[in-house]
Amino acid sequence: MANHNHFSAVLIVLLLQCIQLSCVVGVSPPTQTGGRWELLLNNTGVVAMHMALTRHNTVVVFDQTSAGPSQYKLRRRFGGERCTSAHADNIDPDCYAHSVEYDISRNEVRALRLSSDAWCSSGSFLSNGTLLQTGGHGSGSRRIRKFRPCKDRHCDWSESHSLLSNDRWYASNLILPEHDRVIVVGGRRAFTYEFVPKMGKEKAFDLPLLHRTFDDREGGNNLYPFLHLSSDGNLFIFANRDSVLFNYRRNKVVKTFPRIPGRGSRNYPSTGSSVILPLDHADRFRKVEVMVCGGSATGAYRAAGRGRFVKGLQSCGRMVITGNTNKWKMEQMPEPRLMHDMLILPTGNILIINGAKTGSAGWGNARNASIRPFLYNPKNKPNRRFSVLKSTKIARMYHSSAIVLTDGRVLVAGGNPHRNYTFEHVHYPTELRLQAYHPDYTEPKYDGQRPTNVSIHYAQGDHGIKYGKQFTVRFKLERRMSGVLEFNAYAPPFTTHSISMNQRLLKLKNRNTEIDSNGQWISTVVEAPPSPNVAPAGFYLLTVVNGGIPSVSRWIRFINS
């Protein structure tokens, strides 16, 4: 009996050690210190509720205008009237910026003018690099805004005279294969979709999926639906727990997919996240697979309103949406997670970052910040896909966001689970610090493997590379690793509320490679995607990946003939 008790005690100790190391099935303990964190700015001035990387290597950041004064006070209102130190001006939201542009190379921000309230809005990049931004709250709920980035730091927001057909608060956006046409789906009490720009007298169209998945008692649970463009030109729409393949040209559901297994919900305010996994030239981009991770448990939204914070969902589901066999394959993350961002890294791996472990989205509705990012390798065996990375010391809760930068770092900002900017006597104060997460591949020890001096060459006079055409990538490489060099094209997203709208990565075909006499300079002929169904026209980041080590990305533009 004594030996049995001794064995039990040893077993308990080992289990506790395993728990401390997050020894979950599929998690590799040695990678738990992967990467490092860097504090870039102590104060961005504005909460990064929304964030997007522009083709001029700046980042557009904006919050709601209805949150009262931000922490970026203006010398003058945008109308020209001076902002003084008087109490009336100190509490006047018009004397504060609600949007900024972050210059990556200078590590500084400048104020932008946001006229209408973009609270919980959506966005897509057009083919010329302009950010088309739609919806919001109150006066902004039907607004269409544009930000055309520039090099001289004089560009700013503009608003269209055209309006959306419906109010769009908590809606989602996706750029379509048609030239510069965007679809806007859903929103609070908006069970429809519409297009920008409109064709003739076109209005909004009813979408039965949104009626069917709406949960009024739980705040909706189908807001900010997940949208992904399939390579066959149809639209994957996921709301709450259900999903369809939708032909938006004919306003017709092509296919209804199985419900994702398990209880709980995945969309706002349950707020899981989703990505379309990298598309590959090896199957002619025909296999399209989506992934949905995390969210809130059934009843979590109401429970949070009563001060009880229910453990979030730990499951992820993967499903191939093309072909005739469409079935969710479920996996478990190392920990429960909600309100997180899912980003496709230049290597094709998925980074899961930010968020919380309990509760739901909404004002003060979550607890237990998720401070450890997860890395997911889609190509590993099912029980070896997740690894746990180095933790941050800054909680990133509701209204935080993250994006991938050209050098492979991840910019992390925001967090404000309060109606106003609040810094004292709360569990999670308004967060204005700006961080960069450096994945392990950015470390100097890999510099010998890293492709450098990348340049892109195509026909003179063209404004970009036409679909299916070839172009040349030239780069320097000190040490080539075993395996094939990869040429990955990434569409930078518009990120808000755990959704990276329009994010996709393409693994492009390379036809032949030439190496110069000293064996360091390499020229490779690469083939552009075959159609806008695979890659809607616009600016992408092209990365050369050598044995899992990416180059600094270069901007490339795919255009219609």
UniProtKB/TrEMBL annotation:
Key words of the record: Signal
PANTHER family assigned: ALDEHYDE OXIDASE GLOX-LIKE (PTHR32208:SF54), SECRETED PROTEIN-RELATED (PTHR32208)
Organism: Cucurbita moschata
KW Transcription regulation (keyword) present: no
The protein, known as: Aldehyde oxidase GLOX-like
Secretion signal span: 1-26
Residue stretches making up the Glyoxal oxidase N-terminal domain: 49-441
Family annotation (CDD domains): E_set_GO_C
Domain Galactose oxidase-like Early set, first and last residues per copy: 459-557
Short name of one Pfam family: Glyoxal_oxid_N
Cross-referenced Gene3D superfamilies: Galactose oxidase/kelch, beta-propeller, Immunoglobulins
Taxonomic superkingdom: Eukaryota
